[in-house]
Write a structure and sequence with these properties.
There is one protein chain. The longest helix has 30 residues. By secondary structure, the protein is mainly beta. Strand 37 and strand 38 form a beta hairpin. The protein is rod-shaped. It is built from seven helices and 56 strands. It has a four-stranded mixed sheet with strand order 1-7-6-3, with helices on one face. A four-stranded mixed sheet has the order 8-14-13-10, with no helix packed on it. Strands 16-23-22-19 form a four-stranded mixed sheet, with no helix packed on it. The chain has seven domains: 101 residues, Cadherins (Immunoglobulin-like), CATH 2.60.40.60; 97 residues, Cadherins (Immunoglobulin-like, Sandwich); 101 residues, Immunoglobulin-like, CATH 2.60.40; 98 residues, Immunoglobulin-like; 103 residues, Cadherins (Immunoglobulin-like); 116 residues, Immunoglobulin-like; 156 residues, no CATH class.
């Protein structure tokens, strides 16, 4: 027994706490208003936002809509908090008559338990035409019925409400009957048939009429019914009501079976003709029959359902009082019931005007929203007090008739906070007071108060030359903390000059993305970099902009083959050159020079011997392009050697050029003469070849004539004075200072076949070949050699010494005077004048002027002196 008491006490305490929590939470209410016949899935409102709930927690907190056992017309999307139509609603089925139809639902949260009252207000649309309950109405009217008698007809039923319900009736033309005029103030008009003339059954026992009902909708709709009037001849007294209209006032939610009113009718007839039966008229709505009941014998009207002020404030009931005679007569009494409201509803916030957005530069006290607070429990506007839940730059200003204005109360900055949810709580003055909450979302709209900024202080882009026109080079990027159009950026290239052309003709830019494109194919050799000024501008009003410099660097590509500068072709595509047959190994035959318009590794060149006539005869320095002999010319070697020199760069892919040099091998006696013919192809005077040749031949002839005379005079004078000596006079080889011919020190880069041992066999050449040493030096060097008869002294080229000649008797003694051989190169005219004539031990003497090769003295042929003779 004690255990049972403990269990009951525990359950009672839990039930008590549960009821207390539910009673505290049901006061919150939200109302939605929308027209009937909305399609399934239509959006009604975001109930989660309106109730201030977190959408992410709806499922976890088991949020649901409770209908109290009624049909579920609405559903909640737990992912978004949206309240949507689950089943199409017909206001006429839900509420029947009445201007508004209100459905009461409960929004329940179980964790923790909280209940919200949801009112669904369904607005009527004109979707129904007036309809009579029966397509034909039979009325029996006794004859002798006095004119002016009225007969209630069947009222048309239009499920619509307000102006969409039945507004007027029209009766077909008849000389006996008309319709009773409808009063404008009469809401629920019941058409009544008025007898205009006394009926005579013998003349016309029946009358056929048509009654048409019209509603007030747009477009207008109508319904008809046929009226058949039968003329009777009995029971000439009809019942009459004590009051034609009964006006009753009652509070909402009365207990069941509560007596509302008692209707009383009187009939002057007796017996059955005077016995009255009460009933609701045929046009009484079903909703009235559900709420009220009528006792047929007493006329008492009692409450049989729920009488709710929020569902209907007034009820109009038509009661029929009919006698029980054979041909019964009836009368209709009207009962008007007014329902009094009690404080069972929270205040309602009605938004009159609301601005969903406000600019961030709005001044203080700028109006954001205007709303009115009403209470469905009162006929007049309820007195209430409203406040905000947190400190934000907004405030409420109250005005007449419970109107409130939401205004700004501080500075707004969209970049700091772009949206405000203003929660307003309104409390009525009822007892106990009830409250409701409404959240107003205010978006802070952007103004153009921020200048766009580039993501980098400068941009550098690279593009390879020979690019495709329209190819992307890169992109610039910028950002703007503003919003929408104020943050929409467009890029453009500022007008500037690149090589006297507008920069826009070189580079274009996508105004939206900032991507830059080449407008032409670039050539690194002509243009190495481009400086472009880019502007970014927003779409605000006024627009703001920033500028930046973009440096575009053109990257070199190996698109230029090496160009051979020398030797230049003389005939067709081949160059001509000569060399003596007595050329020693290491003899510089020619030098190839080239240039490459590219840069870097693409311009690094190396020379290669591609195709010589005899591969063992020549070699080329890969870096300098010098062509050297690597052995003596043999008897079997061809007198015309063809050398193909190829020069390649280090680019990828490598490009190359080649030149063919035809080298003519000449005897020592003809070398100088033959080389004269080649002068026309070198230097800046190649176009005046005939003029230069004439000057050369003239100068040579004159010098030869002068030399012969001088030598003859000197020989004649010295015969008597000098008898026992001979001299070696060293005339210089007449040479061009920058000539590539001759025996010189080979470059280190010469590739000599490893199996070739003849080169430099007699020692290292004493003469060094220095191109710079000959720049600008005089071209009047001579080499004088001692001659004796036919056998003249020989010059040993490798050692640069003069061999003594045999003067009468052979002299092989080492202590004999040896002719000193002057340097071939570097001996100038003033040095020659100081040179001494050395004696020969034989006592014989002879003076000879000797040259073995032709030397070029530079681009000026007038400085060329070629002496090829012997004088004694």
């Amino acid at each position: 027994m004690g255990g049972w008491l403990n269990i009951n006490l525990t359950q009672l305490s839990v039930l008590y706490l549960l009821l207390m929590s539910v009673s505290d939470s049901v006061c919150e209410k939200i109302r939605y208003t929308f027209p009937e016949e909305l399609e399934v899935g239509a959006f009604v409102g975001n109930i989660a936002t309106d109730l201030g709930l977190d959408v992410k927690q709806l499922s976890a907190r088991r949020f649901r809509i409770a209908t109290g056992g009624k049909k579920e017309y609405l559903d909640v999307n737990l992912n978004t908090g949206a309240l949507v139509i689950k089943e199409k609603m017909d206001k006429e089925q839900l509420c029947e008559h009445g201007l508004t139809c209100v459905l009461l639902l409960q929004a329940v949260i179980e964790k923790p338990l909280r209940v919200y009252r949801v009112e669904i207000v369904i607005l009527d649309i004109n979707d129904n035409a007036p309809v009579f309950k029966t397509s034909e109405l039979n009325i029996e009217i006794p004859e002798l019925q006095p004119a002016g008698t009225s007969f209630p007809l069947q009222r048309a039923i239009d499920p619509d409400a307000g102006t969409n319900s039945v507004r007027s009736y029209q009766l077909s033309s008849s000389e006996y009957f008309t319709l009773k005029p409808q009063s404008e103030s009469e809401e629920n008009y019941v058409p009544e048939l008025v007898l205009e003339r006394t009926l005579d059954r013998e003349q016309q026992p029946a009358h056929q009429l048509t009654l048409t009902a019209f509603d007030g909708g747009t477009p207008e709709k109508s319904g008809t019914t046929k009226i058949t009037i039968t003329v009777l001849d009995v029971n000439d007294n009809a019942p009459s009501c004590e009051q034609n209209i009964y006006q009753i006032t009652t509070a909402e939610n009365p207990p069941q079976n509560t007596l509302i009113v008692k209707v009383t009718a009187i009939d002057m007839d007796q017996d059955l003709n005077g016995e009255i039966i009460y009933a609701f008229s045929e046009h009484t709505p079903d909703k009235v029959r559900e709420v009220f009941s009528l006792e047929s014998t007493t006329g008492e009207i009692r409450v049989s359902g729920i009488l709710d002020f929020e569902e209907a404030e007034n009820y109009q009931i038509s009661v029929q009082a009919k006698d029980r005679g054979t041909r019964s007569l009836s009368v209709y009494c009207k009962v008007l019931i007014k329902v009094i409201n009690i404080n069972d509803n929270c205040p309602e916030i009605i938004m009159t005007t609301a601005s969903s957005s406000i600019p961030e530069d709005a001044a203080k006290d700028t109006a954001v929203a205007l709303f009115q607070v009403t209470d469905p429990d009162s006929d007049e506007k309820a007195s209430s007090y409203c406040r905000m839940t947190r400190e934000i730059p907004f405030r409420l200003k109250s005005s007449f008739n419970n109107y409130y204005t939401l205004v700004t109360n501080g500075e707004l900055d969209r970049e700091k906070e772009s949206e405000y949810n203003v929660t307003i709580i309104c409390t009525d003055s009822g007892s106990p007071p009830l409250s409701t909450t409404r959240t107003i979302g205010v978006m802070v709209t952007d103004i153009n108060d921020n200048t766009p900024r580039f993501t980098q202080p400068s941009f550098t882009m690279y593009v390879t030359e020979n690019n495709v026109i329209g190819a992307s080079i890169g992109a610039v990027s910028a950002f703007d903390p503003d919003f929408n159009g104020n943050a929409e950026l467009s890029y453009s290239i500022l007008e500037s000059q690149v090589q006297d052309f507008p920069a826009s003709t070189f580079i274009s830019i996508n105004s939206v993305s900032g991507e830059m494109f080449a407008q032409r194919s670039f050539d690194f050799e002509q243009l190495k970099n481009i400086e472009v000024h880019v502007r970014v501008k927003d779409h605000g009003s006024p627009p703001l902009s920033s500028n930046i410099t973009v440096n575009i660097i053109v990257v070199d590509q190996n698109d230029n083959a090496p160009v051979i500068l020398s030797p230049l072709p003389i005939k067709g595509s081949e160059a001509e050159d000569t060399m003596p047959r007595s050329a020693e190994p290491g003899y510089l035959v020619a030098k190839a020079t080239a240039t490459d318009a590219d840069s870097g590794v693409n311009a690094q060149m190396f020379f290669k011997l591609r195709r010589p006539t005899d591969e063992s005869l020549f070699t080329v320095a890969s870096e300098t392009g010098e062509i050297w002999t690597i052995r003596h010319l043999g008897q079997k070697d061809s007198l015309r050697q063809k050398i193909v020199i190829m020069v390649k760069d280090n680019g990828t892919p490598s490009l190359s050029s080649s030149v063919t040099i035809n080298v003519s091998v000449q005897d020592d006696a003809t070398e100088n003469a033959s080389n004269v013919g080649t002068l026309g192809s070198a230097g800046p005077w190649k176009y005046d070849l005939k003029f230069y040749l004439m000057m050369i031949f003239g100068s040579t002839s004159f010098l030869l004539f002068v030399a012969i005379i001088i030598l003859a005079v000197k020989v004649h004078r010295s015969r008597n004075e000098i008898n026992s000596y001979c001299c070696c006079w060293h005339p210089s080889y007449l040479s061009r200072n920058d000539s590539f011919h001759g025996v010189q020190k080979a470059s280190a880069s010469i590739q000599i076949p490893p199996n070739y041992t003849e080169v430099y066999e007699s020692g290292t050449l004493q003469q060094t070949f220095d191109y710079g040493a000959f720049q600008g030096s005089a071209m009047n060097d001579f080499t004088f050699l001692q001659l004796e008869g036919v056998a003249a002294s020989n010059i040993e080229r490798k050692k640069g010494t003069c061999h003594p000649a045999e003067c009468g008797i052979a002299s092989n003694s080492p202590n004999k005077d040896t002719a000193k051989f002057l340097q071939i190169y570097g001996t100038r005219q003033q040095d020659l004048e100081q040179s001494t004539i050395e004696r020969c031990s034989s006592g014989q003497y002879g003076i000879g002027l000797y040259t073995s090769e032709k030397y070029d003295v530079g681009p000026d042929p007038r400085r060329l002196v070629e002496i090829h003779s012997r004088a004694f």
